[in-house]
Structure formats: structure tokens, C-alpha cells
Design goal:
Oligomer: single chain
Number of domains: 1
Helix content: over 70%
Largest sheet: none
Strand content: under 5%
CATH architecture: Up-down Bundle
Number of helices: 6
Structural class: mainly alpha
Distance between the termini: 11 Å
Length: about 210
């Protein structure tokens, strides 16, 4: 009797356009990590500091994604699974930073927040634009798109927080935005983890040997 088992197809050839998009996003995120790290420390802004960590995490994620292009579905999904946990861990870390900032009660400097927030928004819109075409791909592609999308949303919120701090002199707008970014990290991480687990399960079914 002929074998009717399904097998995982051979890994597809790395998408050159996706590779270029990842390199662009990697370089932009690495630069913005340094800009926001320094700016966030200078302005005493939880939102900027949190966003700098997000830029760093995204730069690492893009680098890892470049490393597994052309690998099997199982390994792409495994890397995406790790990235999903990193995104969720980022959300937890930001929540801890919000609590720390609340306990100290230092209001951030709004002008620096606003200027860097606008610069970060431009950077993330560029990243989201170059990665938009790959948003419906596998879990690895989806994860890099979600990172850029979440960052762009977060940057709009940082700008609004800067306006709020400027108008009220309170640290609450900064803390609220940081909390929103934490939620984005947690929900985005959950989406990536769920899809990565589905793909790993699919691979195991496809690779089951014929009896």
C-alpha cells in the first residue's frame, strides 16, 4: 500500500526582500536604543526608558530572525517562541519600572520626551512600512511585524504623554503610557507564542514517519 503520510516541505529559499527589510529595521532599532537610553535617563522618563529597552529587544529579535532565514519551519517557530517570551518579559519589566517610578515620584522633562518621541515614531513608522508586506507570514515574520507595529503605537503614546506632562507637571501621563506599552508587550508576546506553538505542533504532525 502506498504511503499516505504527509511530510514537511523542504525549507524555502530565504526571501531576499525580507532579509533587506530586517537589516534596515535592525540598524534603525540599534541606533534608537542608544538615543532613547541616553534621552530617557536625562529626562527621567519611564516611557522613554521602557521604549529604549524595546528598541534593544527588537534589534536582537531582528538579528535572530536574520540568522534563521531559510531554516526549517520547526526552527523558525522555535526562535519565534523565544521571541514571544522575550516580548512578554519586556512587558513585565516595564510594569516593574512603572512601580519604581511611582514610588520615587519624579516627574519627567517633557520637551526631551516629546522630541525623542517624535524621532522614535519616525523610525518605527519606517520599520513598520518595510515589514508590512510580511505581516501574514509565519510566526517569525509575524513577530517582527508586531514588534514594529507595537513600537509605532507606543511612540504616539509617548508623544501624548510628553504633552500631558508638560500641561500638568505630573508624572502620571508618563506612567500610564509605560503601562500601555507593557500591555502591548504582553499581548504581542502571547500572539507570537500561540502561533509558534501551533507551527511546532504542525511540524511534528507532518514529520511523523509512515507505519
Amino acid at each position: 500500500m502506498a504511503c499516505t503520510c504527509s511530510h514537511e516541505p523542504a525549507p524555502s529559499k530565504p526571501n531576499s526582500k525580507f532579509r533587506i527589510a530586517l537589516w534596515i529595521a535592525l540598524i534603525i532599532n540599534a541606533i534608537m536604543f542608544l538615543v532613547e537610553l541616553i534621552g530617557g535617563a536625562y529626562a527621567h522618563s519611564s516611557a522613554l526608558w521602557a521604549d529604549s529597552l524595546d528598541f534593544f529587544g527588537d534589534a536582537v529579535n531582528y538579528g535572530v530572525s536574520l540568522a534563521v532565514l531559510g531554516a526549517s519551519l520547526y526552527w523558525r517557530a522555535t526562535v519565534a517562541l523565544v521571541k514571544g517570551f522575550v516580548m512578554a518579559a519586556f512587558g513585565i519589566l516595564v510594569i516593574a519600572k512603572v512601580l519604581y517610578a511611582y514610588a520615587n515620584g519624579i516627574a519627567p522633562e517633557p520637551i526631551t520626551m516629546g522630541v525623542i518621541g517624535i524621532l522614535a515614531l519616525v523610525a518605527n513608522v519606517i520599520c513598520a512600512y518595510v515589514l508590512y508586506a510580511f505581516r501574514e507570514g509565519d510566526s517569525n515574520m509575524q513577530s517582527v511585524w508586531l514588534c514594529s507595529r507595537n513600537d509605532a503605537i507606543g511612540n504616539v503614546a509617548v508623544i501624548l504623554a510628553a504633552v500631558g506632562v508638560f500641561g500638568t507637571g505630573s508624572l502620571w501621563p508618563d506612567l500610564i503610557v509605560a503601562a500601555i506599552m507593557a500591555i502591548l508587550g504582553l499581548t504581542g508576546g502571547y500572539q507570537v507564542i500561540r502561533k509558534a506553538l501551533q507551527e511546532r505542533k504542525q511540524k511534528n504532525i507532518l514529520s511523523t514517519p509512515c507505519s
